[in-house]
Structures are given as structure tokens and as C-alpha cells.
Specification:
Helix content: 25-40%
Structural class: alpha/beta
Order of helices and strands: HHEHEHHEEHEHEE
CATH architecture: 3-Layer(aba) Sandwich
Shape: globular
Mean pLDDT: 94
Number of strands: 7
Low-confidence stretches: 1-5
Radius of gyration: 17 Å
CATH topology: Rossmann fold
Distance between the termini: 38 Å
CATH class: Alpha Beta
Number of domains: 1
Number of helices: 7
CATH superfamily: Vaccinia Virus protein VP39
Strand content: 15-25%
Largest sheet: 7 strands, mixed
Length: about 230
């Protein structure tokens, strides 16, 4: 079965969260950036407004703004209900509580929706999915993967992760992946195997702390570069 909008759980994060999740410096923000799996995040719209150079890749970009907005409306309450039922899995220092979190997420997604059709026409939102991307070798300086790799360990095996990261390093000089946790808050169980597999093909890996933590223990990213 192909990708369908019914399978999407849209949950967009803000520009400020991206900066902290990936520990992005002013120099980083001036690079050619690929956001992989961005979904309805505000990062592309906000960085573009600041004069940045960014392309976001996600299979959801095959759909129109109206279709994505409709899916957000369907899933928002369900996601918030799950989050409230599992409040103990999160640190409430980034947000005062679920209400502020929900408002932040919805504001980010509205920023995305307002920019989406214009950005898609300009080639800033590209319908694509790992482990194969439609970009030229070395097209980007930095690739960011937010809440996709590692998070869906139950659905995506170690081989998928290795192939995806090799592909990301084909199109970008450096890759940063955040967080290093699964959906249930555990450390990604096959991290050693993934890092070993990458190192065998000449990829240097580094776990680095970041100034952001919402999921408990979710304050690290994996940094990848060609050795």
C-alpha cells in the first residue's frame, strides 16, 4: 500500500525549537539546509523569512494545504489526549503544561500552512521520503532530521536507518538527527549496531547534547560526517 494522508500524524514544531533541538548557531542557519521529515513544522517558513536557504522533504508534501489542514484538524485532539495521558513522560520546563504546548504546536502548523503553497511552488517543500532522496550529491551543507529516525524503531529497522543516513550524507556534508529516543521514551535499542554499520562505510558518528529536552532523556542528537 502506498503512502496515504490517513497514515499521517501531523505535529509541527517551531523555529525556536529547531534551533535548540539541533543546537543551531548563526553560522549553521546561514548554510544550505535540508529538513528531512519536517511535516508541518514552521522552520522552513521562519528561516526563509530570515533570508535562509532551506528545502524540506516529506511525503506529506504530495498533498495540498487544505488536505494537510484537514488532517491536522482530525488528529490534533487525539495527539493532545495521548500527551495528556502520558504527562509523566515529559519535562514541563519547555512549556508550562499541555495547554501551552498545544498552542505552540498549532501556531507552528499555522505558520507552515500559510507558507506552504507558495513554498511548494518555489521548490522549498518537496514530496520525498527516505531512504531515497531526489537531490544531487552535495546539494546541502547540513541535513536535519526531526522526530523520525530512531523515534519509529518499531516500524523502521536498523538497516533502514543505515541506508537513510548514508543517503542523507550523499546530499549533505553533515547530518544531525534528533532525538535519540523511541516513541515510548526508551533509548533507541539498536544504536550501537547503526553506528557500527555507518562507521564500516566511512561515516564518523558523534552523540552530542543539545540545549533542549521535552521527552525525558531526549536531550541528545546524533551528528554524522564522512570520515
Amino acid at each position: 500500500m502506498g503512502f496515504t494522508l490517513d497514515s499521517v500524524v501531523p505535529w509541527g514544531r517551531s523555529f525556536e525549537e529547531y534551533v535548540r533541538m539541533f543546537d543551531l548557531s548563526a553560522a549553521d542557519l546561514g548554510k544550505r539546509i535540508l529538513g528531512c521529515g519536517d511535516g508541518p513544522a514552521a522552520f522552513n517558513a521562519a528561516l526563509t523569512a530570515r533570508g535562509g536557504r532551506i528545502v524540506s522533504a516529506d511525503p506529506v508534501y504530495a498533498f495540498s494545504a487544505a488536505q494537510i489542514e484537514g488532517r491536522i484538524a482530525v488528529t490534533y485532539e487525539k495527539v493532545m489526549a495521548q500527551l495528556c495521558a502520558n504527562e509523566h513522560d515529559y519535562l514541563w520546563t519547555e512549556f508550562s503544561g499541555p495547554e501551552e504546548l498545544g498552542a505552540t504546536r498549532m501556531a507552528a502548523m499555522k505558520t507552515f500552512l500559510a507558507d506552504y503553497e507558495k513554498g511548494r511552488a518555489a521548490g522549498r517543500y518537496v514530496a520525498a521520503a527516505l531512504p531515497k532522496l531526489p537531490f544531487a550529491d552535495g546539494a546541502y551543507d547540513l541535513a536535519l532530521v526531526s522526530h523520525f529516525l530512531f523515534l519509529y524503531a518499531a516500524q523502521l529497522d536498523a538497516d533502514f536507518h543505515i541506508r537513510s543516513m548514508i543517503e542523507l550524507l550523499r546530499v549533505a556534508k553533515e547530518v544531525r538527527v534528533f532525538p535519540l529516543l523511541t516513541l515510548d521514551g526508551r533509548s533507541y535499542p539498536e544504536m550501537a549496531a547503526v553506528r557500527s554499520g555507518l562507521e564500516k562505510v566511512g561515516v564518523a558518528t558523534l552523540v552530542r547534547k543539545v540545549p533542549y529536552e521535552f521527552q525525558k532523556g531526549g536531550n541528545e542528537m546524533l551528528v554524522l560526517r564522512r570520515a
